[in-house]
Write a structure and sequence with these properties.
71 residues
Length: 71
């Protein structure tokens, strides 16, 4: 779903940049608003989730390593 959203945004910008329509103004506004929404609402939870999963995988690997060598 996120991939389709990013793909749609990129295609919209590319099409609007190569045409001379008033859609370009709408696209610029749309991309600016999406960037604001992305940085304020989406980036932080994704970063936290990414760091959390890295922490869990590191913890799991070290626990497995401990279990392998000390038992």
């Amino acid at each position: 779903m996120l991939f389709l959203f990013i793909l749609f945004t990129i295609l919209t910008v590319v099409i609007a940049r190569h045409t001379s329509s008033p859609f370009m103004l709408i696209t610029t506004y749309y991309v600016r608003e999406i960037r604001n929404v992305w940085t304020s609402y989406c980036f932080s939870p994704i970063l936290v989730a990414y760091l959390h999963t890295r922490n869990i995988s590191t913890l799991t690997d070290s626990s497995l390593l401990y279990f392998t060598f000390y038992t």
